Amino acid sequence: MNMRVKGERAFKVVGTRPPRPDGVDKVIGRALYGADVSAPGMLTGHILRSPHAHAEIVSIDTSAAEALPGVKAVITSGDFGVPEDSALRDVQDHCMARGKVLYDGHAVAAVAATSPAVAKAALKLIKVEYRKLPHVTDVDEAMKPDAPVVQSGLVHETVAPGFSENVTSYCEFGHGDLEAGFAKADRIIERSFTTAATHQGYIEPHACLASMNADGKADLWCCTQGHYHVRAVCSAILGMEASQLKVTASEIGGGFGGKTTVFIEPVALALSRKSGRPVKMVMSRDEVFRATGPTVATSTDVKIGMTKDGRITAAEARLRYSGGAFPCGTVEMGAQAAFAPYDLDAVRTYGWNVLTNRPKEASYRAPGAPQAIYAVESVVDELCLELGLDPLDVRVKNAAQKGTLSSYGPTFDDIGLMATLEAAKAHPHWSAPLGPNQGRGFSAGFWFNFGGNTCVTLNINTDGTVSVTEGNPDIGGSRASISQMAAEELGVPYEKVRTVIGDTTSIGHSDITDGSRVTFAVGLATIKAARDAIQKMCSRVAQIWGIDEEAVVWEDGYVKPASPNAGDFKPMSIEEIAAISFQTGGPIAGHHEVNAEGAGVSFGVHIADVEVDPETGATKVLRYTVFQDAGKAVHPDYVEGQMQGGAAQGIGWALNEEYIYGEDGRLQNPGFLDYRVPVASDLPRIEPVILEIPNPGHPYGVRGVGETSIVPPLAALSNAVSRALGVRMTRLPMSPPTILKAVSAAGV
């Protein structure tokens, strides 16, 4: 369902639902994913991983593995240098342990062999002597002064004394007088919440093929959300010039932020350099869970004051995020997002990043925001219950709007939060009756959206068709949306445009496909590239007609005289202009590169209905509705898919998914049999409602949509379960044992 605003520009291609250009190849199996790429004479690479959560590497003996027939290369951290840049050093040390292992599954050595069987046999011959060290996997325990130290010397100067060295950074956002604000409240609630680490759950494991040539040049094929980032990191780690490493992004079988990082690519390149042959590496599912980045695990305290009529007078949150064994900045985004949906006079958030003996955290759709907003929206819901207020009306009363000073600093421009709230209020879901043991939960959500560096080239082919080359892997249908915007701007049918993702030698740098940036930033650059091509076509036709450029205009794929005074000329189509391009100056192309600004923030609200079995603690999601501002839905099918997909992942996060570590610090559930993601039978019909409040920072009003949809589900479902039980839930996931324990503790 689309709900549009008045005065919207009339589009012909944008806003329609054409087939995705890569759909057929993916359905019939012709599309090449990371594990599908091969090369003559290639070797198989495998990694030996630590069985300990924290241990010193006393010695590594690889001689027996090197002597095994079929083994062509064995590497350890000694095959890499020690980068001066601390961030690069963190990436390298995450890919291959140096000195000590920091988590269960940390890589310690790797082999390249002529077959998978030989490679696996070689791993068993590598002898590693460890000296086990104390470990810590819980974020609150890791902050205590006497906690085992994961890594020393990483504490930022902003961190106050009194914590262990595991607390590496601190941030603070907000404004106003908290003490005065809380004094105005009729009711104050303060609660603590925890969330477990969860994995993105992408179907395709990480895979790559590396080929290092004797002349120092290299080729790398990998499944990634950002091949320019992969090039920058890998070339630096291998001591190469970036131009000597060509990286090609394969099709991607799911990423959700989890493939914005580098895990095995430098290892494959190092093995190829040492063996002199191409090396292919594919992670097992066990490796994906143990050694790639899940979300942060969190511990949060929230304090909110409210008047009897529902006005929030003051709000405070303290966020403690476990970034794994290496520093990360996710807590800053969580602290910024926590109270973003509200217009508050007094608000403050504090955040601490904490090291634990876990793999380095990676992004997962709006990193840090779902956990923070879960805690905030839970307390808002509890205040509504205690004061007898409608939770949706309370959000309306306190909603951020244009001109609101946000909780994290900027003043909002045009935003769609109020429109989503009004749409939810008017929707029949909000007033539908509930039965026994059922509850309805509501939550608002927010994400920043990014712009960033983008480069696009648009070529007008001699037959009048259009080729667009851009540098961002398509993880959600962006080929279609980019083609639509090019077609819209040029006035040609969608079928005449083909968008391809170039390798790192084909087009200028593009930032990672993350931050909900691609449709916004690449779309903006595509529109500007199309306008560049249009200007060139207008110039050429003006020369042909012998009139000034100002005397011609572009309309619906034709160059026309601007007025009767310009002359009586028959309009020239893009096909006609392209056909004679070699006679008028050569090929016609438009180009645009930009560090895009103006990415509009995104808001959404979710309604969830659940039924909880009081005897077993099992939760069934009965109904789910998503309301979200897309700015402009370029391809509504894909916008709805993002909204539904985020909700589905949020349902799994809220009810079932979690990393479970034993007392030995080892991950207990590294596979989909024990780490349970939702299947079709777990999900209700998820109804998406698209709102379109144009973003003034984009020519077509586009906002990113890929991440906001995962922010509200945690709170919406927790609020629904809490209302169904009559017990406030404060821990995620709300698995049956967790629910039964909470009910028992409350004496219900």
TrEMBL record:
The keyword GTP-binding does not apply. Pfam families: Ald_Xan_dh_C, MoCoBD_1, MoCoBD_2. The keyword ATP-binding does not apply. One of its GO terms (molecular function) is oxidoreductase activity. InterPro entries: Ald_Oxase/Xan_DH_a/b, Ald_Oxase/Xan_DH_a/b_sf, Ald_Oxase/xanthine_DH-like, AldOxase/xan_DH_MoCoBD1, AldOxase/xan_DH_MoCoBD2, AldOxase/xan_DH_Mopterin-bd_sf. Keywords: Molybdenum, Oxidoreductase. SUPFAM superfamilies: CO dehydrogenase molybdoprotein N-domain-like, Molybdenum cofactor-binding domain. Residues 28-134 form the Aldehyde oxidase/xanthine dehydrogenase a/b hammerhead domain. PANTHER family: ALDEHYDE OXIDASE 1-RELATED, XANTHINE DEHYDROGENASE. This is Xanthine dehydrogenase family protein molybdopterin-binding subunit. It comes from Pseudaminobacter soli (ex Zhang et al. 2022).
